[in-house]
Structures are given as structure tokens and as C-alpha cells.
């Protein structure tokens, strides 16, 4: 079944495959796309015939994060719903969700992958939180989840430099569950989903709830505190300069204010 706002949902038995389908902008998420992702997550929770889901991107890439051109035009990304940024980052579905990553998962795209329970990635996939390069702050849960999924030093290097990291080292450190050949992430994710779907669906959901709680799930206090800490950067003149530099395809001229 095709979505109306850059998101496709295809049901395969008890597995729903959710595809971000905006390849012209590397699957960057704007407001309507976030709303469509939110609706897909609601469908996963509300449809008793769906036991698990996969999130992926069309056109050989996962997601480039927020649509910064839309953000510069509208003054904000608009990619926030009741489920949080990008339609799922604060409150993902209550059933197992696998990210199938090809190409780049950067910024909010990486945060969406981190919001999933499992990650399958092609060997040539790349991950990054590049927000600091535009004087932005990754507020889609990446700064909360990344240090829980990686050694602190590696998480800090990714977040503070904004640099790209290949799938292989992230696999070695346990962030990526399984690697596939290029172009094979979705197929490998379907195999992983099949391993889960052989089990009882209500037991899967209960087990997932316990795992998330034991792993330190995201609570309201953590989300509110990160917003408070990020406010000086979000209200700085350098934030507007970072967005202008992105649109104009030049290096930012930082003022430290």
C-alpha cells in the first residue's frame, strides 16, 4: 500500500515494511513525511495482525535526516509529531522494529535507526550525527541512545566531530546487529524478522517491553533536559548561519554567539 507523503507501507504476512520514499532529497524528512511515519507507527501498534516491522529507505539510501531546506524555508523542520522527531524517535512502536540501512543514515536518519530495536546494514553503509557542523543539536534521541549502544569514547567522537563511521566498526562494537552485502540490507532484515516471527507475538511484545526498560528506555525527564541544555545553541545566531551556509553550499562563518 502506497503512502501519500513519501512513505510506503507494504504488508508481508505479519511483517510491515515501512519505506521512506523521497530519493530526490536522499529521503530527508519534512513535516508531511514525519506525519506519515507517525501514522505508520500507529498502524504497527494498532493492527493486531502485525507482529514486527522493518524501516528502510528507497533509492539506495536510508535517510539524510531532517529536510534542512524545508527547515530554512519554514523556520523549523516541522518533522516532529506526538511520537517525537521524525514520527517515531521519542515513542517507537511497541513491537520489534528493525532498521534496514543502505547508503547513508545521517543526522535524524541515524537517530531513527537508533530508535529501532535492531539494525541491519549493508557493508558500505555510513552513519553520522553531523548536526554540530551546522550549529544544530541532535535532539532526535541520538545523544541519549548512542552512549548506551556504543562505548562512550566512540559515541562522543561521532557526536562531537560529526564524522562518518562505516558499518563494519559499528558492527564490531555491537550497534549494528548484522551486515549484508551492498544492496542486501532489506533482504537480510527480512531474514532476521523471520527468526523473530517464528516465536509467539505476544511474548515478543512483552519481551521487548522488558528489554527496553532494562536498557534504560527514554523517559520524559531525559527529553526535557536535553531540550533545556540545547537551548543556547538553538537560539544562537550561529544556528541561522549554519542553515544559510548549507543552503548556499559554503563553509559557515561562526561568530560564537
Please state the second-level CATH architecture. Alpha-Beta Complex
| Nearest-integer average pLDDT | 91
Full CATH superfamily name = 2-enoyl-CoA Hydratase, Chain A, domain 1
Order of strands across the widest beta sheet? Answer: 1-2-3-6-8-11
Shape: globular
Fraction of residues in helix: 40-55%
Element order, helices and strands? EEHEHEEEEHEEHHEHEHHHH
Main sheet: strands, sense, barrel: 6 strands, mixed
- Total domains: 1
- Report the top-level CATH class: Alpha Beta
Structural class: alpha/beta
Number of helices: 10
Low-confidence stretches: none
Query: How far apart are the termini?
Result: 47 Å
**Count the strands?**
11
Radius of gyration over C-alpha positions, nearest whole angstrom: 17 Å
> What is the CATH topology classification name?
2-enoyl-CoA Hydratase, Chain A, domain 1
Percent of residues in β-strands: 15-25%
Descriptive overview:
- The chain has about 260 residues and is α/β, with parallel strands linked by helices.
- The protein has one domain: 2-enoyl-CoA Hydratase, Chain A, domain 1 (Alpha-Beta Complex).
- Helices cover about 40% and strands about 15% of the residues.
- Strands 1-2-3-6-8-11 form a six-stranded mixed β-sheet, with helices on both faces. A three-stranded mixed β-sheet has the order 7-9-10. Strands 4-5 form a two-stranded antiparallel ribbon.
- Helix 2 (about 70-75) crosses helix 10.
- The model has no long low-confidence stretch (mean pLDDT about 90).
Amino acid at each position: 500500500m502506497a503512502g501519500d507523503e513519501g512513505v510506503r507501507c507494504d504488508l508481508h504476512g505479519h511483517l510491515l515494511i515501512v519505506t521512506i520514499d523521497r530519493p530526490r532529497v536522499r529521503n530527508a524528512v519534512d513535516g508531511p513525511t514525519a506525519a506519515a511515519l507517525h501514522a505508520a507507527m500507529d498502524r504497527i501498534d494498532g493492527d493486531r495482525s502485525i507482529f514486527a516491522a522493518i524501516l528502510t529507505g528507497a533509492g539506495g539510501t536510508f535517510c539524510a535526516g531532517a529536510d534542512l531546506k524545508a527547515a530554512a524555508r519554514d523556520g523549523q523542520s516541522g518533522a516532529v509529531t506526538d511520537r517525537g522527531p521524525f514520527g517515531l524517535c521519542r515513542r517507537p512502536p511497541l513491537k520489534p522494529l528493525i532498521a534496514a540501512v543502505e547508503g547513508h543514515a545521517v543526522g535524524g536518519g541515524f537517530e531513527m535507526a537508533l530508535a529501532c530495536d535492531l539494525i541491519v546494514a549493508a557493508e558500505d553503509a555510513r552513519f553520522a550525527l553531523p548536526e554540530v557542523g551546522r550549529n544544530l543539536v541532535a535532539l532526535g534521541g541520538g545523544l541519549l541512545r548512542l552512549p548506551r549502544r556504543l562505548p562512550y569514547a566512540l559515541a562522543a567522537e561521532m557526536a562531537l566531530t560529526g564524522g562518518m563511521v562505516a558499518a563494519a566498526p559499528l558492527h564490531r562494537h555491537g550497534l549494528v546487529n548484522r551486515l549484508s552485502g551492498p544492496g542486501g540490507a532489506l533482504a537480510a532484515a527480512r531474514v532476521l524478522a523471520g527468526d523473530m516471527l517464528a516465536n509467539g507475538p505476544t511474548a515478543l511484545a512483552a519481551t521487548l517491553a522488558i528489554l527496553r526498560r532494562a536498557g534504560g528506555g527514554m523517559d520524559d525527564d531525559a527529553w526535557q533536559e536535553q531540550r533545556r541544555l540545547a537551548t543556547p545553541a538553538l537560539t544562537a545566531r550561529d544556528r541561522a548561519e549554519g542553515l544559510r551556509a548549507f543552503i548556499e553550499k559554503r563553509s559557515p562563518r561562526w561568530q560564537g554567539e
